[in-house]
Protein 1
Amino acid sequence: MVEIKRYSPVSFKASPKRTEIRDNFTVVLEYEGEGQQPFDPSNSKDNYIVDLSHITRFDVQSSNLDDITPFGIKIPQGLCESYLQDSVLINRMNRVQASIFCLPVKKDESSKECQFDFQCSCDSDCKCDPKKSSAYTETTEVGMCMAIFGKNTFSITEKLTSLDFLDPVKKTPFLYQGPMSHIPCQIITLSRDGAKSGIIFTASRGYGKDMTHAIMDAGAEFGLKPAGEDRFKSWAGSL
Amino acid sequence: MSLTITCPVCGKRDGYEFRFGGEDKGPRPEEDSLTPQTWCEYVHLNKSVAGVQKEWWVHKDGCGSWFTIYRNTVMNVEVQESEACR
């Protein structure tokens, strides 16, 4: 039997302290020097960047997205709205497409098992079959995914993009499809609440190395440092 | 940031996120009566209006949508957003 190995397109200039193999990825749980304490939003001045390229991601397409409930969760109706429930983040990209992220949220829970529930909201005698009219594409391998969180998240993003993450009209979580470091990205703002502030973003896999370089450079003055998945879990769990 | 464009999916954005897709020339000419001359004119000739014209744009750095807007070519401002926004 051949063992496959999957590689994240993102790497940091830091030494992993604890790792584990998950879905053939080597996942860094903690880096050297990132600190012993779990993320505490009431007491944190630090800003972190976490590589989440290993988390399972999907795109779903259907002419009738309202009839589909991936993981039992309804897809948001408004364009560019997002919805986070348990460990599943769903983002409405346009009229016929949504992206799904299976986040590692709880300390003892890895990425959620992939299971799709299809429920139709029509009457029982309707003839539509969401199973036949929808298509899921796994996008884990084609992209990179990172999270930035901490008090200065939006000071860092301000140096990288002209998108307005603090637009008061938008309610978190929400999706931006736009450029960051001149790279087309999907950026989901999960929180704008002081030290809890944070975003998750994805872009094409090939940009991983250069985007990491640009973000670390922009975040240097704010003490941005790489963190492992455990720190992301404690941040996401605090939302 | 001089030009802003209203994407029907993402809303008002910096014009640099978009790529120009040419003047809106209406539907393709009918195949039945199509002559090389008519096709050449449809493909290559532009009106290049000095004023408000309907144009195609694509949100290349965002959602990837193709849509039309009305732009004042003299002022380089969007005067009327996409019909898809309404």
Protein 2
Amino acid sequence: MAVRPQHTHNGGIVERRLRPIYDWLDNGNNKKALQEAEKVLKKSPTLQAARALKALAMFRLGKGPEAHAVLQALADEKPSDDTTLQAMTILYRESQQFNKVCELYEAAVKAEPTSEELHSHLFMSYVRVGDYRAQQRSAMALYKIAPKNPYYFWVVMSVVLQAKTAEDDTKKGILLSLAQRMVDNFISDNKMEAEQEARLYIMILELQEKWEDILNFIESPLYSQCVPGSTAQACIPYLKKLGQWSRLNLLCKDLLWDNQDRWDYYLPYFDSVFQLMKNECEGDSHADDTAEKCHEFICQLVESMSSGRTLRGPYLARLELWKRLSVDGDPTSLLGSGVALCIQYLRVFANKSCAVPDLKPYLAMIPQKEREDSCRDFLTCLGFDENSEPETLDDIQRHISCLCARRLTAAPGAPAEQLATAGALRRQYLRCVARRLLTATQTEYCAADGYGTLAAHYYCSAAVQQRSAAPVLQALALLELVLHHSPANVHVKLLMISLYHMLGNAIAAESIYVRLEPKHIQLVSLGWVHAARCAPALAPARALRLLADAHAFHKHYAKESVEHLTYAYKYGTFEKLLELGAWGARLGACAWCALAGRERALLPLLAGPPAPLHAPARLPHPPVDNRDLNAIISWEPAQCADPDLKERTFDQDVAYLRLKDGLVSSIALCIECSDNRSVAEKRAQLDELRACVDAFACAMDKCRDKYGAARRELCISAPFPSRIIAFVSSPVPYRDLYSSVLTMVCELCGGEGVRGRESAERLRALLVSSRQQLEAPATSPWALRESLEAFSNYLEFIGVITFLLGVCNELSTPTNTKKSKKKASQSPDQILTTEMLSKLNDEVQDTISFLEDIFEKWPTYDYGFNIEDELAKLDITDKYHCPVEQKLKNGLQEVLADVKNILKKKSKYLKTLQ
Amino acid sequence: MTTIRPFTCEDMLYFNTVNLDPLTETYGLSFYTQYLAHWPEYFQVAESPSGEIMGYIMGKAEGHGENWHGHVTALSVNPDYRRLGIAATLMNILEEVSEKKKAYFVDLFVRVSNKVAINMYKNLGYIVYRTVLEYYSGDPDEDAYDMRKACSRDINKKSVVPLTHPVRPEEVD
């Protein structure tokens, strides 16, 4: 953030002196800024602005305590010049001390009670801490000094916010009527002038559910003066609230005559028709109160369209009517069959890639039997079949739309059938390559790409049913070719990421992921697509990098989000204020970011050098799902739909998050308890640690019961089974392994040598048997993903136990004394403990050797497939080499090499502890 | 078939298929939230009946005196929903808002290589007002066309008399 204030008043000598300090600060050279500030202070040691900037430079150089000492001294002088105050505000904000900013400006306005600018800063300081009452007070003071509209509405908004957060209804009612009275008075004085003021007034009336008053206001001349040209549209929600269905009906019809494609007018129109149908008494002969009249109206809209431009609106409206009528009746007598209507839609719009996505919700409404019986009609309705060879781009898109509609309606079919269809689609794509029918540009997809994405869906279903990687390889080979020709196609990229991960290959997936260039908010909404899958694919270093990006985004936003509220006041956009507040809270409670925080603490124990544990921020209550699960294109038939997917997978992910949170908290407590305070002094933390370990064990038991047998089916467009499933259902007893190691540290920290050694002995036995419980590496590429996930869970434990052995080692050698001296001073109990730890250490090293041996002899897989043979048969001159096999081989090799390297380091580290 | 509604913060979680397009930039969060807080009426989204984001437009009003104008900051349409007139609908809204704000003209910048977009803007009545050299950074940098369309307030269409020479980005106000 730029430090320099936007308006400097005292332009002259002071400004000139300070300029270099600002320059250095804005360029991020804090050292130079500090030197420059000291230079200025030599000449004028009391200059407040220079001292404030000096403090800021010191803070940014990591000298927090010194910076705050300077700042406190300044604050005691109660400065009131803008330059000083702004520099101090920045420092307080950067150190998250928002309350101090309030105090600062409270003192400043006392010194200069008529300054509009200082009062407005004071108001904003209350906004940052969310003190609505203080906001109201300061905005009122501000309005008295400078009677401007925005300030008045700051007062009103502050009252509204108090009402919104008020706990009892009476208080809420009083506050809202106060807010309303304030605006009413303003209106009667003819002072209302801005759109946002009118919207705030509506918001106040809405909170009181005064629908009639809102309608009257919207229809008043004042509203159309403040918000010109939107009266009709603005009435819609309130006519609905008031049940004025006839009026709503006529209004929407009017709007639709002029806007035949506006879905937001059709929906309330249908609502009104269906209400009027129920409610025969409300008679207005012009309103459409029967299905017949409604259909008639839609037909008129269809006919009214000029021949040049056909809009989807009226056609989809007919389907919507069919859908609504079929909820509790039979619409066929009026509209014909749903199949016929869908086919009619396809006939008109099949040349658009949105045709089938548009139809999707309506296809799902057709009874399954009828849908499956007519799937062939969808394919053939435009004269195509599987073997058609369309030559124009429009026809290719039509053909693809028909094929997609068939996929959505047909019974899924046996794997052989799916593979045959996939093969046919692949031949279609290759035909387009050979016939030079590909037209993709830098930003436009190519119609023929649809053959590839649809084929990938068929291949993937066959692979899942057969539990075989071969069809996935075919899909990947085809999609790599599609992407080669159509580099902008996002669907292709996302499908490929999913497919590479299906084969457990995070490195190959990354080769595509980087081409998507996701950033900022996308790191959150798309985290599940790739970043979340790296750690279980045994790519911890890569996972850590991606998690660090997500974490950095989250941290940055948490700091910024409060500033956005001040903008909304500044520009008087009161509606957005609530939205921005809710958005800040939503991102703050992001489950994925919370998990990223935990993984960033745990994974370095495996993949990083031993380092202090980052303690993540507290777990949000409750964590929020910010995943965009519709990102990957899906051509799954309606009967394969999984309506609970989002809720189910989120519930599982949150359970996993809680387990990881328990582990991080326990490990952090182990570190805290391992210092050289007396046992009595750390009693409280030891108790907390014990409680944490018990809670973890208990949660593991519950999760095993709840999630151990959860469904694990893979779907191309959905998140993979949550990590909790493999973790709690593993034959390796992670519950006991983690609780034993944590209990051992706890006992040793508490000076309970005997009990500590018992835990260590139990742990050693568990470790020995766990080696036998580990499943052997996958022998087929299909099983690789699950196999790597199982090993990643085991390796994470190895990381934790290695780290905790280091902690125990610190415990028995609290100072950096020489080994020989230390041994001499050990009590018999400590000697026994040291011996026990050394035995445990040996066991961990043996386990590591055992793992090294497994990774050394990891099977190689045969990735044979045939797209190049088929390409060679075509008459294509440009050379294309399919990269899939190489990517998969290199990816696996890289992962294995990394893991072996990690294990070597762990082993080396463990030896240093002995 | 479109629902036009104001863009909301939560839309940022679901605009992926629009924004992963190579020429559509995903900005830092505060860029979007500042536009939302400052010019909410200029930030509109077109939604499909199934709730998918088909495209969005973000813009602002700026300038002094006869330079007071509406500006298109971003206009992007999901590739699956192109050639349906969505961009034109969204541009229309931005022009209407600019009319209400009594702007003199609406302007926008577009890559000179983006033929599809340039043609669309021309069909909507925009002219190339000037070329801005190396406006888009990249390898190599690319020039932009500054395209304009006059609003009704500019009766004599003074704002759309093309410049004869190109300008540097720093000369653009």
